[in-house]
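User: ok so my PI wants both of these folded by tonight, can you help

Assistant: No problem, let's get them done. Here's the first:
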Amino acid sequence: MYERRELYNNAPLVLVTAEVRYPYSPRLRQLDTIDRIQVALEHLLPIRRVEKRFSLQIPLGQAGAAIPETTDVYRFLNRASTWSAVVSPEAFTVETTHFEDFPKFLEVLLSVARSIANETPIPAIERVGLRFINEMRVPETTRSASDWAGWVDPSLLPALSVKAGPLKASQGVAVYDLGDSAQLQFQYAAVEGSGVVGNETLKRRSTPPPGPLFVLDFDSFWMAPTPEEAEAFSVELLSEKLNRLHEPTGEVFQASITDRARNLFRKASD
């Protein structure tokens, strides 16, 4: 037996990220607005960096004449570069490579939401997304994707067996309808490499050497069916939606792994 929301000492979780989208806000391009947001967040994320986002604009009546356009977005980080928030005129994102528990993550995210809402009206929430990326590594050698049997549920492994050679990679996707315009997209893959999450913007807890790993990627999101059905912004509504999106990720994660994997994750991290 297992708990739906057990916290493991040696969890395979490498990145948690959440994004909130809203209608375009020109004030979030103004440096004095960004300065005040930075002051409000300096106890959590005191370091500020500017990043360029690129897009292509196609003028009406000039098909094919795409004009590249850049927009400045602002990333706020903690000193250890393990937490960050990115603020743009159309969305904000909070992410961490040192996840402790969901209440802590939600507390930081709502602090970012309040700091933005205090500086510019947010008329509506168009989309809320919550993503958990896990990289499973096990002590025994896995030469083929089918060798993950005993660590993950058999439904995540390839059903076709041939003698052509070891199956080096295998992947799949499942989409769950959560109701009320919400979905959970679950992607899984047996691959080889150093990982699917880099170590550039945020620092990982560790950077394992290249080798076999099993990726469990949970992307839970709510999206307004149309712009007119976007919901009025409030911190309370945002908290409610994120808690709702969080709940099924734990259930599917626990259903995806075996007791053998759970026992491995319960051990103290080296």
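One down. Here's the second:
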Amino acid sequence: MANIGVLGGSFDPVHNVHLEIASQSINEFKLDFVIFVPAYLPPHKNKLEVSDKHRYKMLLLALENRKDFIIDDFEINTGSVVYTYITLDYLQKKYPNDTVKLIIGSDSFNQLDTWKKPDYIAQKYGFIVIKRPNIDIDKKSIYYEYANISYLTAQDTSSTMIRNMFKKNQDVKNKLPGKVLEYIKEYDLYKK
């Protein structure tokens, strides 16, 4: 029986903090592996900067040397918005004898009441919560009892920040895996 963490997102682009969060979750919560699930289109966004093909390829490059990091293209293959509970149910069916937990940041955890079926997710799967800088975890949340709180505070990096740095021609090399940066430059992504 394996312990599996699920890290979803747009990964537009995938960056070093995504990888640190996954590694920390494996080490701290004794996970066997983390499944990265790139969204076709997250429910809370109208559009993404680059295509699902580019985002998937960047994830492949970022994760290529890690046997404990897996990509599942379930959401991309649907070609539409997929709610988290549907993805978790899909993964639980794929790994029927294993334990599946959702990895989220404190910002997302504090907004679970805006999600589809948060009670179902909490009770059936539970959460690994990583603190984001300047965003405390709401200890009064009705979902707190279902949360495994990491002692890690993630670095203050986001895909939005990195995209803005690209547009301003700022140096991002310490924020991205080397092969991801090469890919972005090769395809001239995030310039406009």
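The chain has a mean pLDDT of 95. DSSP finds eight helices and six strands in the chain. Good luck tonight!
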